[in-house]
Design goal:
A hairpin with a 2-residue loop joins strand 2 and strand 3. Helix 9 packs parallel to helix 10. The strands form three sheets. Strands 2-3-4-5-9-10-13 form a seven-stranded mixed β-sheet, sandwiched between helices. Strands 1, 6, 7, 11 and 12 form a five-stranded antiparallel β-sheet that branches. A three-stranded mixed β-sheet has the order 8-15-14, with no helix packed on it. It has twelve helices and 15 strands. By secondary structure, it is of the alpha/beta class.
């Protein structure tokens, strides 16, 4: 793991150096447009995978750049060009706005209702490192983790799993979790792992060409030395499960006790990096694809094992169809079983 970390620090350092397009400040519209196009041209990682003709995008948008256009129109124009990448990890960031691409989620049902969800949580639930948790009916534990940017410590996880020590199964809900820190994804996923496992691959850019990509570099996950949970788990997903959440789901689907229930995740498997334009605006974009254990891209999402949408009638009656389906699924899976603790660090079936 240390070798992997050192490798990526080196890659990031070289990458940051290579992204310096202009050393001096310039507000010139043409200069900034060309700088943005070149940064994406040399460092974006999904051109071939998404079949994007970036030269054609230059022709389409460069003719719209004028010397007299103000910063707001320039920002809007360049934001539209970036939207052609169809990438939720790609943004143009200024002091007055952030361009973004939302279509990866808007064509899908929400499959999450905050009001209904709060009915399940009630008022008497625990909070640990951003995880909200309680025991539902039928001895099933429930965790909602809505942001991978919220730190989760080993102590947080230990306390949570101890709270569920008498539960037969667990629901881990990451719907509407837009991502955050990959380190949290790794820390939580390691609690469901019995032995070291290959969980994916990463590819990095090796040069300015669109096909200048390294061979896939394996990513292995080590099991935690703390409490493990090997009893049945349902991971709940929807289309707004994105980025680091997509990574977490991609890991969890590999474990035999885990079932994905809900809707397809939003995807976002490109590790994002930042660069700066001559006028001080920054650009964020996908540079290093993370593949699954079969070397497949998950940029467009991970399919659930059990596809469920929230039904309108259920929602009107404060019923979360996806949670209810998970409860019924886990009840059948654990019927007749009695949870036992084989050691203080190992919760099995």
């Amino acid at each position: 793991m240390k070798k992997i970390i050192t490798f990526f620090i080196s890659v990031i350092f070289l990458f940051v150096l290579s992204c310096s397009v202009e050393d001096e400040y310039s507000s010139d519209a043409r200069t900034n447009f060309e700088a943005l196009w070149k940064i994406i041209d040399e460092h974006y990682c999904f051109f071939d995978y998404k079949d994007i003709d970036w030269d054609a995008m230059h022709e389409k948008y460069s003719v719209q750049v004028t010397d007299s256009m103000d910063k707001y129109h320039l920002f809007q124009l360049m934001g539209k060009m970036l939207a052609e990448l169809k990438d939720g990890h790609t943004n143009l960031i200024s002091s007055f706005n952030v361009s973004r691409f939302w279509d990866w989620s808007t064509d899908y049902p929400d499959n999450f209702n905050t009001v209904v969800h709060n009915k399940y949580l009630g008022k008497d639930y625990n909070i640990a490192g951003g995880m909200e948790y309680l025991i539902l009916r039928d001895s099933i534990g429930y965790v909602y983790y809505g942001d991978f940017s919220n730190g989760v410590s080993e102590s947080n996880l230990n306390e949570m799993f101890l709270h569920f020590k008498d539960c037969k199964a667990l629901i881990f809900d990451v719907r509407n979790n837009g991502g955050g820190a990959l380190s949290n994804s790794e820390r939580i996923a390691s609690r469901f792992l019995e032995e070291k496992r290959l969980v994916g691959y990463i590819i990095h850019k090796t040069g300015p060409g669109h096909n200048d990509l390294s061979e896939p570099y394996p990513i292995e996950l080590q099991p935690t030395k703390y409490i493990k949970w090997l009893r049945p788990v349902a991971v709940l997903t929807n289309r707004s499960s994105y980025s680091a959440t997509n990574d977490f789901v991609n890991k969890m689907k590999l474990f035999p006790q885990v079932t994905l229930i809900g809707d397809k995740t939003g995807g976002g498997c490109g590790l994002p990096f930042h660069s700066e334009l001559p006028n001080g605006w920054s650009v964020r974009f996908s540079s290093s694809p993370i593949l699954d254990a079969n070397k497949e891209y998950t940029e467009y999402g991970v399919d659930p094992d059990v596809k469920v949408d929230i039904e309108d009638n259920d929602q009107l009656n404060n019923i979360d169809t996806i949670i209810e389906e998970a409860i019924e699924y886990l009840k059948k899976k654990t019927e007749g079983s009695k949870p036992e603790i084989s050691s203080a660090k190992y919760f099995n079936e």
